[in-house]
Design brief:
heterodimer, A: mainly alpha, B: alpha+beta, six-stranded antiparallel sheet, elongated
């Protein structure tokens, strides 16, 4: 309980005007609302992996992705939630620039998964950290969420890579796009 | 030990088929003497829109892939679509929980630490991948160790336990609803519920007399133990005076008659019974404390009132209780066991004496006037107040001037760590010495001192 936000932990001498009811009532609000640790660390690890894969795409890609990692780091280390989305987006843009510059397929896929996982875990760190606080045991839910998030990315990336490799390279790109759109539309319509 | 068990199930209307309470939970029946119905607020399922941006990014990546002819970008877009499918794949979880809250002591003394253990069991048939629970700790109870919250994932039948410690305060507290937020594994849908598990903690001060109360020489007509400044029947020698016809022969000073041949009568100090009214200062200005934790001045005052009350009853004096509060607090002076029980009840559970400051405005003037009408003419006043403002000092002087001799027992809420606090402490010291000048006795009760020690060290300096 080193840091508290919200209701001040008032050191009252004799305040002439009395004190806050919350102060007198004790420390219901005394939780440390900071991003949850495990998710924050894992988010940074994922962002780091994503940055490493951006190395395959040349200097500009690394620069943009690096900026994204910095923004994500600022978000989870200092509890500044506004830069999460921008950080994740920059990370993806860096990967995309690398891809256009001719990076190999595997680093691009790994970088994409890493960026999405980093962004997702950073958000999760905030939602858990702000709802439950640093003092609360949340490792279980954080670990499960991280595993699920990374697992989905790895499975989807592997599947799409396998499909890409097994001799459908002759298809026009438009076909793939139409397939993606079809998948999106299906998702929207099904409303699972 | 108390245990409250609640079966709670939140399901969509068409799948409301949770197990009957107790059927799945083998320890519910034996452990719980007072199982109660669960009031349950099930808010609607909410979309968190967490993954919304991913759709846009995936489409843009796919478009870029086509335009620039990069197949790997198309694959990246496929990854995005995969995540969207993941987000869509799960419905909001069906929450069915058995919650058990156990207190290490449900009738603690004020200041005791009470361990609260909450056990949550997933009685449903599906995995709860993201379960966040916030226990409804009563606002007045301070959590000193652990956290009344947990974030966990529960398989069907699995349990999670969290434990925290609160400091008991005087009064009766019921735990509020537990807030439960359950999300699906992707975090795209969440369900929020409130579960009620009835647990209450009642904290009554034990009313132990640990101190002897110095009283002032304002007494009733009845024989008691307060020394007065009048001669008469008693134990302690007071004076001799000239013999008047009618004086009892046993009171004649025979030694003197033998020596001088003069008849004189011995007088003894009369001991009388006192009527005391304990007046609690419950104005918002009295809710102050030294430092940020521990008990505030009102808590200490109420605690002291309990001790004084018992001590005075023990010596046979008549004691009453009154308070300067929005609600009417008045226990007329009396004696006996019933009176003691009434006082214990009043001090423990009267809403005006709760640890929270009053929310309603009230006129201290009117309260004082009403109190003065009620006070028996021979009653002396023990005022329990931190003396944190000038108003209360003025009122104390007024009581004194109206003939109700006042003793102030004042928990010291000042600290000396900052300039402002030093000033406040000096102001209070001034206030106390002005009160003493006008004849009011003040027992300045420091934070780290027991009431008995404060009373003893202060009353040693008093004369008469």
């Amino acid at each position: 309980m080193s840091e508290t936000t919200g209701v001040g932990s008032g050191e009252e001498g004799v305040p002439e005007g009395g004190m806050d009811p919350e102060d007198a009532a004790g420390g219901v609000a005394e939780i440390t609302r900071r991003p949850a640790k495990l998710s924050a660390v894992l988010a940074l690890v994922a962002a780091g992996i994503s940055l490493l894969t951006a190395l395959a795409g040349g200097g500009v890609a690394v620069g943009i992705a690096g900026l994204g990692v910095v923004l994500l780091g600022v978000a989870v280390l200092f509890g500044y939630s506004r830069t999460i989305d921008l950080g994740g987006l920059l990370l993806l843009v860096g990967i995309a620039v690398g891809a256009i510059n001719g990076a190999a397929t595997v680093p691009v896929l790994a970088g994409t998964v890493g960026a999405v996982v980093a962004w997702d875990l950073a958000n999760f760190a905030f939602s858990v950290g702000y709802q439950l606080g640093r003092e609360t045991r949340t490792e279980r839910v954080e670990a499960l969420h991280a595993a699920a998030s990374a697992g989905v990315g790895v499975v989807v990336a592997t599947l799409s890579f396998v499909v890409f490799r097994t001799g459908v390279s002759g298809l026009p790109a438009a076909t793939v796009v139409v397939m993606l759109l079809a998948a999106l539309t299906l998702l929207a319509v099904l409303r699972l | 030990m108390t245990a409250s068990e609640a079966e709670a199930a939140a399901t969509d209307a068409e799948t409301a088929s949770e197990a009957p309470p107790g059927a799945e939970n083998e320890d519910a029946a034996e452990e719980d003497p007072r199982e109660t119905a669960v009031t349950l607020v099930d808010r609607d399922v909410r979309e968190t829109h967490h993954w919304r941006g991913v759709a846009a990014v995936a489409l843009v990546a796919g478009g870029l892939g086509v335009v620039s002819g990069t197949p790997s970008l198309l694959l990246a877009a496929a990854v995005g679509v995969g995540y969207l499918a993941h987000a869509r794949a799960f419905a909001a979880p069906q929450v069915s929980l058995a919650i058990d809250r156990t207190l290490s002591d449900d009738d603690p003394d004020p200041g005791d630490e009470v361990d609260v253990t909450v056990t949550v069991r997933n009685t449903g048939s599906s995995l709860l991948p993201d379960l966040r629970i916030v226990d409804g700790v009563p606002e007045a109870l301070e959590v000193v160790d652990g956290s009344p919250r947990i974030g966990t994932a529960l398989r069907p039948g699995a349990t999670a336990t969290f434990r925290y410690t609160v400091v008991a305060r005087r009064g009766e507290y019921a735990f509020d609803e537990l807030l439960v937020v359950a999300r699906d594994v992707s975090g795209s849908r969440e369900r929020e519920l409130e579960l009620r598990v009835d647990t209450a903690v009642t904290c009554t001060p034990s009313l132990e007399a640990t101190t002897e109360v110095p009283l002032r020489g304002l007494t009733s007509r009845y024989t008691g133990r307060v020394d007065t400044d009048t001669g008469g029947a008693g134990l302690e020698f007071f004076a001799t005076r000239e013999y008047r016809s009618g004086d009892a022969l046993s009171r004649v000073d025979w030694n003197r008659l033998a020596r001088d041949g003069e008849l004189s009568t011995l007088e003894f100090r009369e001991e009388r019974l006192a009527t005391v009214v304990l007046v609690l200062d419950l104005r918002p200005a009295a809710y102050v404390q030294a430092g940020s934790d521990g008990l505030h001045a009102v808590d200490k005052s109420v605690d002291a009132a309990g001790q004084l009350f018992t001590a005075l009853l023990g010596t046979g004096d008549r004691v009453g209780i009154a308070a300067l509060a929005p609600e009417d607090v008045w226990l007329p002076p009396g004696t006996g066991n019933d009176h003691r029980a009434r006082a214990r009840d009043l001090l423990a559970t009267h809403p005006a004496l709760s640890p929270d400051p009053p929310e309603r405005y009230f006129s201290t003037q009117l309260r004082i006037r009403k109190l003065r009408k009620r006070l028996p003419s021979d009653a002396q006043v023990i005022l329990l107040s931190p003396l944190a403002d000038d108003d209360i000092a003025a009122h104390a002087r007024l009581f004194h001037a109206h003939g109700h001799l006042v003793t102030a027992v004042s928990p010291n809420p000042t600290t000396t760590d900052t300039m402002g606090h030093l000033t406040a402490a000096a102001e209070r010291a001034n206030r106390i010495s002005r009160l003493r000048e006008s004849g009011v006795r003040v027992i300045d009760w420091d934070d780290d001192e027991s009431l008995a020690a404060a009373v003893a060290s202060t009353s040693a300096r008093w004369s008469g």
